[in-house]
Fold these 2 entries.
Entry 1:
Amino acid sequence: MTWKRSHDIADVSIGMEGKEVSLGGWIEDVRVMGKVTFATLRDHTGMAQAVAKGDAAGGVAGAGRQSAVGITGTIQGTRARGLEYEVLVSSIEVLGRAEHPLPVDPIGRQGSNIDTRLDHRALDMRNQRTAAIFRIRHRALQYARRHLDSARYTEITTPKIIGSASEGGADLFSMDYFGKSAYLAQSPQLYKEQMTLGLGRVFEIASFYRAEKSHTGRHLSEFTSVDIEGAFMDCGDVMAELESLVRGMITHVAGSCAAELGELGTGLRDPGPFERLTYKDCVRELRGMGEDVEEGGDLLDSHLRVLGGAHPGYYFITGWPTDLKPFYIMGSEADPAVSESFDLQHGHLELSSGGTRIHRREDLAGRLAAKGLDPAQFGPHLESFGWGMPPHSGWGLGLDRLVAVLAGLDNVREAVLYPRDPDRLTP
Ligand code: ATP
Ligand code: MG
């Protein structure tokens, strides 16, 4: 017999009473009650109760929890609480047997630590709590694409194999490229800036790579970034875009993932307008709380933890010292030592960095040299600045970190299918 699926569980209802259906799914639970066997079947859309008697009862009981099965049966009413129908099984076929003992318990009754779950990620995904995270991630991405499309950005895909560092700095993975050195891109920065001179407004959602030996709950070697760059936009314009995108994502996830948020024991609502602090405000506030902060120095993780304690929600930090920011960030007209830049924070966690970019070639070449970078290495990039480069601004938003915040998770690894970090390269 060749079994063939007829319906998703979500499309079956008591209105189909007496009809035959064929459902594909995994057996989540089996209860043998004398001559009758009950099983809970789960597919990608929901759960159904199957009831089997006679020969079929043995088949259902023998299929084994978590096996992939095809069930054919008739829809009938049920007395089970909370359910409106059940499937009276006429036949069951085991399509993929689950071999016990399984390395993690997909029902989550027996908790496993995060490393064990990540080592067996595909099975962990059958845990509804884990699946909820990735459905939330899907909805967040879906909203980001819709939002940026309606704001007239064009989605682009830039190279991930590059010939030289795009941002300077040492945190690049290198590899052999037909006898030459190549690197994995740490961001789409230079390409997205160049694309503004042809496409005007662009965005990219892609993986980028950082060879930092960080062992934190927020750093990965491979992460997903949502990047935008817009011609004739300034720092304030792209901050407003980021704020409306993030608030829209929150509202969209809240509206489309009520069950998933419930599964995770968390909730979401529009946080309202984001607070805006300047770098100087932060230094003053931190000193007021007894922190030792050097004016002009970077805010350390310990500082951000204190600041995040006082500002637990979403807030911008603007006006960073130009010296602390990458070479392509513009100094302000009023005070070139203060940059046209921002970070978006959620509590102590940095979610995004952005700002106005330098668009004059001489200025950019000067900044490269001042940062100790070799302008010759940036030849093709600098050349494009002579082709009518518009003033432009943009940001990069860490999707994994944002999803972790939306889903109420402490560790960014929970929001990534197969995270890569200095200790984790497989599976
Ligand atoms: P951090 O200071 O937290 O290491 P960063 O300032 O080096 O971050 P940016 O270069 O500003 O990071 O990248 C933009 C955004 O991309 C960050 O705000 C963050 O959300 C995300 N991001 C950067 N590096 C990582 C990483 N290693 N793992 C996960 N997300 C990252
Ligand atoms: Mg940053």
Entry 2:
Amino acid sequence: MGIIIDGKKISEEIKNNLRKKILSIKKDKMKPGLAVLIVGDDPASKIYVKAKKKSCEYIGINSFEFNLSKEISEEKILEIIDKLNTDEKVDGILVQLPLPKHINQETVINRIIPNKDVDCFTKVNIGNLFYGFDGLKPCTPNGCIQLLKRYNIEISGKFCVIVGRSNIVGKPLSIMLTKNDATVCLVHSKTLNLKEICKTADILISAVGKRNMITADMVKQGSVVIDVGINRDEDGYVTGDVDYKNVEKIAGYITPVPGGIGPMTIAMLMENTVYSYLNKK
Ligand code: GUN
């Protein structure tokens, strides 16, 4: 049986440290602030935003929620972002994705000033990440790296296979693992011999969004398996990409879903918001 990597526990430790940091800030000083824009009524987005708000409250971050109609125009969203960009009470701005089809996601995201882009989605921040500069880090990839570090799992020199090439997870994670001296292989739906490649991984990360994407025959004995997927089974229960019941018997370490990467993503968002607040000019 593999060791279960407890993302929930680690995320709580991180949030407790942030809470202590905020509590130590002088009473007359403004608290950090996070603005969250949610457009339309996607049920999954609502759940994520609620969890983000709850974490803000716990840590002592002011949260400003903007529930916008799915019919809202792109110009109106840009107007709201422009106001938030110059609002001193706001240190982080997050636009919950997905956005309705009539809105250009790239235009909206890149309107956020890089200092307040706590998702690390803007071209400027992704460029900084690419060059290896310090700054805000993308939340889910950083959550993966932090879990590996907290469990003293060596990354340097390891063969890491990432399944999925999204802009939010796969691509930035490949940059971050490379910075940590891993040898990285990014595989996707067009990859030939996907199963065989996965089986050679010391660290296998799945970020596809498909149930049972990773089966036991794709996993090397004793390897580390990180499951970024969030899916629902036929009974509505949340599951990851990994066939957990069978893979757990082979893996050396494994993250559960729920309770693995999900809570770490939120903890990293909180960390970015506090970072942005502390680095305010
Ligand atoms: N939708 C799904 N995941 C995310 C995320 O990490 N950030 C934002 N803004 N939207 C998302």
